[in-house]
From TrEMBL:
<keyword id="KW-0812">Transmembrane</keyword>
<feature type="transmembrane region" description="Helical">
    <location>
        <begin position="594"/>
        <end position="620"/>
    </location>
</feature>
<keyword id="KW-1133">Transmembrane helix</keyword>
<keyword id="KW-0406">Ion transport</keyword>
<comment type="similarity">
    <text>Belongs to the heme-copper respiratory oxidase family.</text>
</comment>
<dbReference type="InterPro" id="IPR014241">
    <property type="entry name" value="Cyt_c_oxidase_su1_bac"/>
</dbReference>
<keyword id="KW-1278">Translocase</keyword>
<dbReference type="Pfam" id="PF00115">
    <property type="entry name" value="COX1"/>
</dbReference>
<feature type="transmembrane region" description="Helical">
    <location>
        <begin position="341"/>
        <end position="365"/>
    </location>
</feature>
<feature type="transmembrane region" description="Helical">
    <location>
        <begin position="491"/>
        <end position="515"/>
    </location>
</feature>
<feature type="transmembrane region" description="Helical">
    <location>
        <begin position="186"/>
        <end position="207"/>
    </location>
</feature>
<dbReference type="InterPro" id="IPR014233">
    <property type="entry name" value="QoxB"/>
</dbReference>
<keyword id="KW-0560">Oxidoreductase</keyword>
<feature type="transmembrane region" description="Helical">
    <location>
        <begin position="413"/>
        <end position="437"/>
    </location>
</feature>
<feature type="domain" description="Cytochrome oxidase subunit I profile">
    <location>
        <begin position="39"/>
        <end position="555"/>
    </location>
</feature>
<keyword id="KW-0349">Heme</keyword>
<keyword id="KW-1003">Cell membrane</keyword>
Length: 650
């Protein structure tokens, strides 16, 4: 209890951190100034901070994740700079630890997941012919919980000190004996706050997809991206509660002196590793299955063919999701669970390669004899296939339990999971970004710059991570902050660092492409700029806030493709317009999440009074919400008519 300011509350020791602090304050001041100068505060509040529109929430997720890709990427470049040559001292051991922890945590929780959630938000309701998600208010709450959780994590390196026990945060290293101070508390509380949001997103999209599909869209007529999101939602619902519990137990250990994870108190440190990976392995599929869904959409769109083996694609995702819950021990074969346990997890891990292989062949067969058009989204999708294949095959190698005693925690592993996470999830996000960009904003990103970005990023990526397989087999272990000369590792590391910087250049071109295309990008006047197959391309770009003036009726897979082929209008297209029921905006998701932030920040420093105040704020918001009855409105027919004819669709 009480108010006890830790010694180094504002972190000042390291020049690099001081520079970051100054830059952060300047950026914040710049934003506040710009909003005030251009009188945009009300616009910000009315249009964005209080919105419950899935499309805007999606855009906010994507902007946040791009910022976090930048932040996490800088961390990656810092590490690669440090490792470029032997005996460098750009970073010391302590900061290296903090940086790989921040990098891993941010990339997984605050970049890959929100990026996927953003694309889900943008595309799924449109793909199924719905006007929003099932619970729009909850959706806004999910976003703001993610956002404030992310903010809490991001201030740690400036205020109080960053966590440094790796993104896996293993005990006893992360226990209060070996890691006193606020660092690990930041990890626990920020992930807890954003994790609640993720769980609610899973529930929201499960219900949305099951209950809100347009008439005639049976499960087996859903677009493949929607399928992947349905399965992902189920994984989220089963996996995230495990993380919630693990984080809560370790928080109680650290803040209140219990002993769930300390041996001396009768606890079990390996329990953390188990709980973490019971969530953590399915987590990999939470970010990669939607990417698979995106690749399926993109490949069939630009091969101008129906997706090959649609039902096999669906069933293999179902199998992957189920088996993903039975493989977690492969992350610690070296724990010593014995041959029987290791054999089981070895076989279950290898089994995942089968449905994954089915999917790869289906993508290849979709491409086969297609009239392929190499647009930017298609480049990312085609580039993904060999990359993910390398990631997957080295995964099977890691699954050989006895051999893993050699590979474990080496650069071989680092390379493997970057091939899977970057080559799978990030390539997927970028494919989706270029693909759905016109739908989000009404103009296309420049194709030539997009291709430059793709090639630089792709070649840079392979230069960066391919050599790491070899240096890993030569004995270089992960999380090593420097290494001596004479081990033969230097050329590999140098190439790797050059590749990392190439990726950085690719990223900068991507950002430039966005800024350039805002002014010069090709406008999307038809709403169907790629000649698409699914319902999101049937409405104007950007989509009107009610999405569909008339809810479409679906009678086949690739519904929009068939509608385009038909000459005559369908009966549903000729029906008179009706007023549309829409949810009201609300500032409460934002405010409630801000209270969560207050509680989290208090608990990080063990100021329990502040934790209690924050939680009371949350409770108050919940009570207010429970007594809110006037939470929707109707859009009248004349407004719909005006909007539709302004978009050229009278
Ligand atoms: C942008 C290019 C990237 C570069 C240059 C990069 C580089 C690195 C480096 C140097 C490490 C530390 C290795 C060590 O010392 O153990 C690392 C670890 C890691 N990276 Fe990346 N990375 C990149 C992208 C990503 C992405 C996109 C993700 C996830 C989606 C990711 C997830 C991770 C994770 C989970 C770790 C492990 C952290 C830990 O050991 O606790 N990285 N990365
Ligand atoms: Cu795993």
């Amino acid at each position: 209890m009480g108010f006890h300011l830790p010694k180094n509350f504002l972190v000042t020791g390291e020049p690099m951190i001081v520079v970051a602090e100054v830059l952060s304050v300047l950026t914040l001041a710049g934003i506040v100034f710009a909003l005030t100068y251009y009188k945009k505060w009300k616009w910000l509040w009315d249009e964005w901070l209080t919105t419950v529109d899935h499309k805007k929430i999606g855009i906010m997720y994507i902007i946040s994740s791009l910022l976090m890709l930048f932040r996490g990427g800088i961390d990656g470049l810092l590490m690669r700079t440090q490792l470029a040559l032997p005996n460098l001292h750009v970073l010391d051991a302590e900061h290296y630890n903090q940086i790989f922890t921040a990098h891993g945590t941010i990339m997984i929780f605050f970049m890959a997941m929100p990026f996927i959630f953003g694309l889900m938000n943008v595309a799924v309701p449109l793909q199924i012919g719905a006007r929003d998600v099932a619970y729009p208010y909850l959706n806004a709450l999910s976003f703001w919980l993610f956002f404030f959780g992310c903010m809490l994590f991001n201030i740690s390196f400036m205020i109080g000190g960053a966590p440094d026990a790796g993104w896996t945060n293993y005990t006893p290293l992360a226990g209060s004996d070996l890691a006193p101070g606020p660092g690990i508390n930041y990890y626990l509380l920020s992930l807890q706050i954003s994790g609640i949001g993720s769980l609610m997103t899973g529930i929201n999209f499960l219900v949305t997809i099951l209950k809100m599909r347009a008439p005639g869209m049976t499960l087996m007529r859903m677009p493949m991206f929607t399928w992947s999101v349905l399965i992902t939602s189920i994984i989220i619902i089963f996996a995230f509660p495990v993380l919630t519990v693990a984080l809560a137990l370790l928080t109680i250990d650290r803040l209140f002196g219990s002993h769930f994870f300390t041996v001396s108190g009768g606890g079990e440190p390996m329990m953390w590793a188990n709980l973490f990976w019971i969530w953590g392995h399915p987590e990999v599929y939470i970010v990669v299955l939607p990417a698979f869904g995106i690749f399926s959409e993109v490949i069939s769109t630009f091969a101008r063919k129906r997706l090959f083996g649609y039902s096999a694609m669906v069933y293999s995702m179902v199998v992957i999701s189920a088996v993903s819950f039975l493989t977690w021990v492969h992350h610690f074969f070296t724990m010593g669970a014995g041959p029987a346990v290791n054999s089981f997890f070895s076989v279950s891990t290898m089994a995942i390669a089968i449905p994954t292989g089915v999917k790869v062949f289906n993508w290849l067969f979709t491409l086969y004899k297609g009239r392929i058009e190499f647009t930017t989204p298609m480049l990312w999708a085609v580039g993904f296939i060999p990359t993910f294949l390398i990631g997957g095959l080295t995964g099977v190698m890691l699954a050989v339990a006895p051999a893993d005693y050699q590979y474990h925690n080496s650069y071989f592993l680092i390379s493997h999971f970057h091939y899977a996470l970057v080559g799978g999830a990030v390539f997927g996000c970028l494919a989706g970004l270029y693909y759905w960009w016109p739908k989000m904003f009404g103009f296309k990103l420049d194709e030539r710059q997009g291709k430059w970005a793709f090639w630089l990023f792709n070649i840079g990526f392979n230069l960066c991570f391919f050599p790491q397989y070899f240096v890993g087999l030569m004995g270089m272990t992960r999380r090593m902050y420097t290494y001596p000369e004479g081990l033969g590792w230097t050329p590999y590391n140098l190439i790797s660092t050059v590749g990392a910087y190439m990726m950085g250049v690719g990223f900068i071109i991507m950002v430039y492409n966005i800024l350039y295309s805002i002014r010069h990008g090709e406008r999307d006047l038809t709403g169907d700029i790629w000649n698409g197959r699914t319902l999101e391309w049937s409405i104007s770009s950007p989509a009107p806030h009610y999405n569909f003036a008339r809810i479409p009726e679906v009678d086949d897979l690739d519904a929009w493709w068939h509608m385009k082929k038909r000459k005559r209008k369908q009966p549903w297209e000729l029906r008179p317009l009706k007023p549309i029921h829409m949810p009201n905006n609300s500032g409460r998701p934002f405010i409630m999440s801000a209270w969560f932030f207050v509680a989290g920040f208090g608990l990080v420093f063990e100021w329990h009074w502040m934790g209690i105040i924050g939680l009371l704020g949350v409770l108050y918001c919940m009570l207010k919400r429970s007594f809110e009855y006037d939470d929707h409105h109707y859009i009248q027919v004349d407004e719909i008519e005006r909007t539709e004819s302004a978009a050229g669709r009278a």
